Amino acid sequence: MESSEVQRGRGRSPFDLIMNQIRRKRTTSDRKSTSGRFLSRQAESGGLPEDRETEEERDGAGVVPGPADLAESVCDMGWGRVCVFVKRLGKRADSRTLSLAHCDLTATDVLELATLLPSLSLLEEMDLSWNELIGGCLRSLTSHLQNVGGLRTLRLSCCRLTADDITALGEALKCVPVLEVLDLSWNAGIGGSTLQGIVGKLHPTLRELYLVACQLTETDATILGGIVSVLPRLCVLDASCNPLLAHTQTEAEDGSMSETEPGKGGVWGLGGLVPSLSHTPSLTTLRLHDCGLTTQSLGLLGGSFHCLRSLCQLDLSCNKGVAGGLSLLSPHLALLSHLGGLDLHLCCLTHTDLQALIQALPSLTELTELDLSSNKEVGGVVSDLVSALPLSQIKLLPLNGCSLNQESLSALALALPYLRCIDVSWSKMVGGRLALLLEALQPSVTQELRLSSCDLTTDDLLHLAVVCKRGVLSSLRVLDLSYNGGVGEEGWCGLLGEGGLGSLEELDLSLRPLTSKPSLLTSNPSPLTWLPTLLSAFPHLPALTRLSLQRWTLTAQEREQVNHALRKREVLLELDPVLFASSANQEGLEEERYEE
């Protein structure tokens, strides 16, 4: 016959096991209190207890845990599962932030994560971006979002979301009433009316909405208008990289839709979105980069500025269709009294466009950033541009790819003392004249200096070395001298040997990619003869995190020397593969695009 202890040990329920765990976790004070009560009972009875210890006494003298203790133990077990799950993915557990981006999550992982949400009741931010394998199975997660009702940020960019995923998300949004940030960018499956699944589902608390590169069409523009019309607190709307968003179409007699020329009676894609912006008085950032905007789009957008007086950042870049129509927008810019940043780079702006913009600039009293880069006509109006800007507060004025001439360089020098970032890359006129710009710099102001493909000479770099030695560039974080093959060894050694770049984080000294000519593929690329000076400079570059030496020839021994010098530092070193010819055959060089 089995003993009573054995019988009691069989068939224990999970509840009993949890109770035993709680008993073992009793504090020392609890144990002393129990011992005190036991001795008191012993004195009152006048005798000693039996000289044996029952199983109940070993487990905690028969003390039954209350509901609070039981809930605490269950919570501890759930959090332990969360820690194991997150650690397996190479991340650290945080009760308020769950960042699982770039973790190669699978459908199975999503199911497991869903079961862990009850243990993440304090969660405020969830980032599952760049996990392309979870597309099509989001419903298994969203059906449990009621367990994280305090969620404020949800990022699902580049997850290959499907129409069913968006529908499931829309159904679950009612469970997260305080959501402030929603990022669905880089999900091509969202385009084509799929956004309808979240219309009317977002709460008025939403402040930021990101729909970058979702293949949105003109139909989606109308749907997006319906979404933002009920978001009075919306501050950021980013619909960039959707080239069909402002697509202009017209209906043929057979009912089919075809592209039409601007101004020919077609339906403006932004016509369904822009009027709804009147319901977003808190909007501070509007990004429509590469959205297929046309001159009509500018007129429509300008007409809405009277409702967007809080706008601080406006990005209309990479919309070549706006060329010749900036006069439709510029008169309305004066309404944006808080505008601090305006981005119009790569918009094929004409001389007329630029003159219209220059007339509007004096009214933009809070402007600190103006990007007109990659617009060739800018080179001829730099003088007028600088005269119209509030120079004392301008921090960013990139003019790379703007066909600068000697006169424009002289005019630009007036603005340099105030600029945090200086970019005149792809301007051949800078070569041999860099001293003109360097003499205008003020100490501890410039943080970025980009001089890529400027035909710099050895003398130019020696002038730069003198400026560094004076401490003028002591706050410089980024220095881009790439694609300047005309600099001799003396120039590189002079720059690296003078110091004065203690804050430098990124240094790019790469050479221009070679063409695909067979003779060049078999020729010997440029040797790094100034390597000893570079190695000696590393101790004087304590903040360096990135060094690019692409297309310089290093022997195996020289590569080892560079790696050895940086072995104890986290520096991203960019070198060409050992077989140099494989990296030389590169087509579509960016410089060639500028020169066309």
From TrEMBL:
Signal peptide (from-to): none
Query: Where are the residues of the annotated region Disordered?
Result: 1-65
Q: Cross-referenced InterPro entries, in alphabetical order?
A: Leu-rich_rpt (IPR001611), LRC31 (IPR042419), LRR_dom_sf (IPR032675)
Q: Which SMART domains match?
A: LRR_RI (SM00368)
Pfam family, any one: LRR_6
Instruction: Give the domain of life.
Output: Eukaryota
Q: Which Gene3D superfamilies match?
A: Ribonuclease Inhibitor
**PANTHER family hit by this protein:** LEUCINE-RICH REPEAT-CONTAINING PROTEIN 31
Q: What is this protein called?
A: Leucine-rich repeat-containing protein 31 isoform X1
